[in-house]
Amino acid sequence: MIADSTSTSQPCDAASFVAEAGKLLIDRHCEDVMLLDVTGLSQVCDYVLIATGTSDRQMKSVSDEVGDFGEDVGFCVFRKNIDTGTTWIVVDFVTVVVHLFEPQCRAYYDLESLWSDAKKIDILSQTTAP
Questions:
Q1: What's the predicted TM-score (pTM) here?
Q2: Which of 42, 51, 61, 58 is nearest to 18 (CA)?
Q3: Domains and CATH numbers, the chain
């Protein structure tokens, strides 16, 4: 399943969806894309996908595209939140939460440290990093 495919209509599991969503973020020039498996660590979701956007316009566009991709594969957006300055966009798919940040906001909230016990997933190879 390829994130660029607009004809995909078959459902997929959360791990496949989030890996493809991560590839989509990379393809759309988001920076420092990180996928964390927080299964058993979070009571809210199983995967956290974090990326840095290059502009507010790019972040809005990518968040819309990730939402559309989710709907195409059976992961509808539960909630989407954009702060007033478009420095942080959250797209919540329940089992997967996508965070798009502008660089200073990402450094400030430092979600990677918050989830330091989580398994890091290599998006490009879809394998768990040691």
A1: 0.87
A2: 51
A3: 14-128 (3.30.460.10)
